[in-house]
Amino acid sequence: MTPEFLFDGPERADTTLLLAHGAGGAMDSPRMQALTEALAQEGLRVARFEFSYMAARRQGPRRPPPKAETLKPEYQAAIAALGVTGKLIIGGKSMGGRIASMIADEMQSAGLLCLGYPFHPVGKPEQTRTEHLERLCTPTLIVQGSRDPFGTCEEVSTFALSPAIRIAWMEDGDHDLRPRKNLSGFTIKNHLASMAREVREWASKL
After folding, report:
1. pLDDT tens per residue across span 28-50
2. Which of 15, 48, 90, 134, CA to CA, is 20 to 30 A from 78?
3. What predicted TM-score, i.e. pTM, was given to this entire model?
């Protein structure tokens, strides 16, 4: 099945981001829309697609996502279908970024962007999903909330990650980068803007 794309940002941008959704939210979910709009406002071209299991949910029952590893061919097919000839950064939200991280070196993408990486299942910090991140060669930016239940700042600091990986921490952010305004003084609007600036500045150096 040929993937369908949603595009945002200037058509003639120097950099294109190909982003996949998380395990539970479609490519046009409010979370993905907010992330995409912030990136597009920084002059980045963003292409979104969704995996076949998520597309099937639009027509039938809500089924759980398959194992992340089985979705690698679908991500590779999306890269081929998009056909970008310039600078292409692959990635996504949560699971989408995780799948992209599994193929980034093989696909020789210019960079990898993970927006809320699921370092481990919630409540199971011993079940890490980081083995391949230890040997990753692709320049990588992970934007992570400091209190993300899938990997807090304290937890991630103990992981042996590749030197190709840079982590931008959003203070008091959760898995969607959302802070508690009454405790942190930040808002989700602040963090989305900061995220997008971080991405633009990082991408400009690739």
Report:
1. 999 999 999 999 999 999 999 99
2. 134
3. 0.96
| C-alpha span between 39 and 196 (Å, rounded) | 5
Q: Are 6 and 21 in contact (CB under 8 A)?
A: no
Looking at residue 127, its amino acid is Q
Q: Which two tokens stand for residue 37?
A: 């709009």
CA distance 53 to 13: 31
Which 3 state secondary structure label does DSSP give 178?
A: coil
Distance CA 74, CA 63 (A): 18
What does DSSP say about strands 87-93 and 45-49: parallel, antiparallel, or unpaired?
unpaired
Structure tokens at 40: 């597009």
Q: Of 55, 57, 103, 95, which Cα lies nearest the Cα of 79?
A: 103
What the chain holds in terms of domains, given with CATH numbers, is: 6-203 (3.40.50.1820)
Structure tokens at 193: 């803007």
Closest by alpha carbon to 161, among 190, 141, 184?
141
> Tokens in use for 205?
């150096």
* Residues across the chain: 206
Contact 104, 140 (CB under 8 A): yes
